[in-house]
Amino acid sequence: MPPDGKLRAFVAIDVSPEIRDALAAARGELADLPWAGDVRWVRAENQHLTLRFLGDVERSFCVELVRELERRVAEVPVFDLSLVGLVAFPSARRPRVIAAGVEDDAPVTQLARAVEAAVVAAGGEAEERRFRPHITLGRFRKPPRGKIDLAGREVAPVTMSVCEAVLLRSELDPNGAKYSTLGRVALGTGVD
Ligand code: 2AM
User: Fold this and answer.
1) For 132, which of 62, 92, 95, 165 is 20 to 30 Å away at the CA?
2) What whole-number distance in Å separates Cα of residue 33 and Cα of residue 47?
3) 34 CB-contact burial (10 Å; exposed 0-12 / middle 13-18 / buried 19+)
4) Virtual CA dihedral for 137, 140, 141, 143, nearest 10 degrees?
């Protein structure tokens, strides 16, 4: 539980039903692998692309952050996001997470930078870790023995249009986190 008065939050892209279907199919492709039973798979409704994890923050910070996001995210043009490949994070030798990668990091990285600028403007700490866009399919309960091999395992190259970023609250639960939406901010359409 976060300390009194705080909530656990992050900024993300909510993914389309077509992307959820593609991720479910990719997960099906992994089911026969020896370590598949050691993975806690993310429920379809919880799938998202994290732009910035915030940790435990004050409610007042969230209000200020949405205000900053509205200004900065509106300057990022709407873009297409396509899935490409399955990856193990942080590496195939010591995987903690199985994720789908995205094709062309540039637009989503631009959005993540705008989000980062909003976090700092709202009074948050700057993020030290490099942004690596991915959509988590599952997390290892215990690390597998040895390197894992994802060769030949694919995810369909589905594309969605990214029109908004969402600020989500995360409530931890033994059956998987419960997410609720605190705010939505629109990307720019190029029309003033
Ligand atoms: P991930 O799925 O890319 O691993 C909500 O917890 C989201 O924030 C998760 O989906 C996770 O992204 C991301 N996140 C990043 N750093 C985190 C951390 N230290 N603890 C929990 N979640 C983190």
Assistant:
1) 62
2) 22
3) exposed
4) 180
Average pLDDT over the chain reads 94
**Residue type at 105?**
D
What the chain holds in terms of domains, given with CATH numbers, is 13-186 (3.90.1140.10)
Average pLDDT for 16-26: 97
User: Contact, 156 vs 22, CB < 8 A?
Assistant: yes
Widest Cα–Cα separation across the chain: 54
Ligand 1 mean position to 128 CA, how many Å?
15
Give distance in angstroms: CA of 98 to centre of ligand 1: 13
Which residues 6+ apart lie within 8 Å of 45 measured at CB? none
Q: Output phi, psi for 153, to 5 deg.
A: -95, 125
Nearest atom (ligand 1) to Cα of 48: 10
Note if the pTM is more than 0.85.
yes
Ligand 1 and 136: CB distance under 6 A = yes
Q: Where are the beta strands (DSSP E) in 26-177?
A: 39-41, 48-58, 79-89, 97-103, 134-140, 159-162, 164-171
